[in-house]
Amino acid sequence: MNALAMIFFAFSAYAIGYLFYSRYLSEKVFCLDDSRKTPAHELRDDVDYVPTNRWILLGHHFTSITGAGPIVGPAIAVIWGWLPALLWVVLGAVVIGAVHDFSALVTSIRHRGRSVGTILGDYAGERARVIFLLLILALAILVNAVFAYVIALLFTKFPSSVIPAWSIVPLAVAFGYSVYRFRVNFLIPTLLFLGILYLAVFLGARYPVSLKPLSGALGIDPIMFWIVVLFIYTFFASSLPVWLLLQPRDFLNGLQLLILLFLVYAGAVVANPEVKAPLINLSPEGAPPIVPFLFITIACGALSGFHALVSSGTTSKQLARESDARTVGYLGFLGESSLAVAVVIACTAGLGMVSAQRFSELYSSWESIKVSPVPAVVEGGSALISSLGVGPELAETLIATFIVLFAATTMDTSVRIQRYIINELAQIYSISALKNPWTASAGAVLSSMLLVLAKEGGKGGFLFWPIFGAANQLLAGLALLVAFLYLRREGRPTLPVLLPLIFVLVITSLAMVLNALNNFLAGDFLLAGVSTLILILEVAVILESIRAIRSQVEKRESRRYT
């Protein structure tokens, strides 16, 4: 097998999925209607609710859902062989992941831009809503704590990424003012600021920035210094109007990703390297069983519950027309899947271009690849890009900068979502202080910082990270449950959502049970307890939903015979 065959398979599946299946979902299942007012128009406040050009919104949504997930997950999962990883990334995206994102987005706009957790309360009652919101809040805190550490670590290990990563902030603000205040055609600032951003990448490669001397003088570890800076930044970013920073930043990052993907895929086509990895490996040293753990190791790129938070948390508040949901929700996910495919190619065929033994060295065991997925992607991706004549050092800077920028945009969005959830809980329990966006943002930042500080060196988020994959996929199952309840109430076809819902809940519940058992046997009672608690919360939400469905059926039956 060579890289070109992988690319042909993936993009053929994407074309069929978008041209035919997403049209069926739009027209026959959810019945999108541009005559309906979207929340962006109905509740417009020019802070969170802002009608947005679908291509700009696609860039925001694409980068917010992408982050580092579709890089790290597939890079680790190819230890089970390139074929299972490729099939789950491509087919999972077409029939499950993109359906999940699209359905969460449409369900939210049909409920005034509310989050999936809040919407659940309309169908399954107040208890289910609060349980779901608390689960979402816990996952958002975990994402923020881990991503803050990862970004800080990347700044320390790849100082060449510092200049381009921070230069995008003023560029995004200038873009926002140009488009929304001065009404400049967005193509002009797009080309201008994208050119400046790539100049910053070049400058970053020439002038790497290390803060070790400054942090040393202050008596602070460089990673902790960056973590503090990142949380100060996200405090302001999560409260500013979405058009001013978050949306243009994500749009510019999305374009950068498209360019980088083009370079990686072009390099793969030009070099067309052979895949230097096993087709299937069912027993890698130290690895858990492929079923169910493949499906939670690869989350972003095939399916991720975090995406439902983005779809219903920020994206639904900016959708200008219902028909734009097909482009933003479904196509946006296929874009992320294409990144995961590029990672699979980089870690299998690309590493083979580095040396014949490089894959075997990095993937010698589960523990080996768990600590080196990013180097595997950087090395393999750089080798592919270098086949186009780009210098290896510049290629590495491009990829490292891209990883930092996308992790940062996910963190930006996650803190804003966390603010929304705190606001919603404040409404439920009448906590006046937390209804203010600034105090809610402070609560979001402080809660994440507390988790960061729970372990020395800023690694507090990793206390619970081993169970994040399963918890994240359970969240995806619950988001599909909300869409199923909505479609059922509306009398629409439910199978396109019900079948993924059953698969996701079964496979990830099994993973969570195994996680809890393994942690208990290993003596890690904290993780075993948290895994068990999440399972109990999931069962509680499902039982509340079943109770609500039975209640609806009984009411219909009583009306029929009266």
Automatic annotation (TrEMBL):
Question: Would you tell me the Gene Ontology cellular component terms?
Answer: plasma membrane
Coiled coil location:
none
Lineage top rank: taxon: Bacteria
Location in or out of the cell: Cell membrane
Q: Which Pfam families match?
A: CstA
Q: Where is the signal peptide?
A: none
**Cell membrane in keyword set:** yes
Spans through the membrane? 85-109, 130-155, 161-179, 186-203, 223-244, 251-270, 290-310, 330-354, 436-454, 466-487, 494-513, 525-546
Q: Which UniProt keywords apply?
A: Cell membrane, Membrane, Transmembrane, Transmembrane helix
Its family remark reads: Belongs to the peptide transporter carbon starvation (CstA) (TC 2.A.114) family.
Its name, as the record gives it, is Carbon starvation protein A
